[in-house]
Amino acid sequence: MEELKELIDQAHYVTFLTGAGVSTPSGIPDYRSKGGLYKREKYDFPPEYMLSHDNLVKHPDIFHQFVVENMYFPDAEPNIIHKKMAEISNEKGVIVTQNVDKLHTKAGAKNVVEFHGNLYDHIHCLKCGKEFDYKEYIKDYRHHEDDGIIRPGTTVLYGEGIDPTNLNDAVKAVENADLIIVAGTSFKVYPFAGLIAYRSPEAKMVAINKENLGLDESVLAITDDAANVFDQL
Which InterPro entries does the annotation name (predicted)? Predict the structure, then answer.
């Protein structure tokens, strides 16, 4: 912890790379841990298909049910991790997140790159483009005026590419950092995990996760719950 505090104090530009584990203390389930979304056997198709563009178009009713039951947590509040990251990044850095819950922004972070988009902005009809509030989408995926399918926000689905602006901003965030802190992610999903390829050779790197990510020896690995770590900062 002392080494982490010193690294943050000395850094000029801190880039956080975050995943679902950052939001689990706020009551939002993660994806790949035991009991996570991808480990459930409730549905006929694997979660990767349930959250795919193909499923959205071919089975909009099944897609909608899955997303509403598993992805929307509008009452969730930012936890200590979101708050500390907001404080640090607002002073000297940026947060690049895989999360689609908007909790980093809700915590007051001003410099956030939502790598996979989010569930709440730009919810729109695929046929006419009309936008809807998320509360309307939760009730119904159909746009009855033109029989179009309503799509949940800017979220990147399986089978879709990353928004070029988000990808470019994320790469710049990693390139500019002299300290990179990875937190709450298995770091197995690409292209997100590939972002560290843009890390400067001089940049320090810290990985905070319940399980060791197996990164190279130059990385300071803190095997602990991220909430415990950020509560001590």
Answer: DHS-like_NAD/FAD-binding_dom, NAD-dep_sirtuin_deacylases, Sirtuin, Sirtuin_cat_small_dom_sf, Ssirtuin_cat_dom
Q: Please check whether residue 71 lies inside any domain of the structure.
A: no
DSSP calls for 159-175 = TSPPPHHHHHHHHHHHH
Q: Which amino acid is at 211?
A: E
Tokens of 149: 């399918």
* Residue 130 banded pLDDT, cuts 50, 70, 90: very high
Query: Is 83 within the bounds of a domain?
Result: yes
| Residue that has been written with the tokens 């930012």 in this structure | 78
Region 84-105: mean pLDDT is: 98
Q: CATH no. for residue 224?
A: 3.40.50.1220
Q: Which of 127, 159, 157, 161 is nearest to 144 (CA)?
A: 127
Q: What letter represents residue 185's amino acid?
A: T
Matching residue, tokens 């939002």 = 28
Q: Is 122 a catalytic residue?
A: no
Domain that holds residue 210: 1-27+77-118+161-233
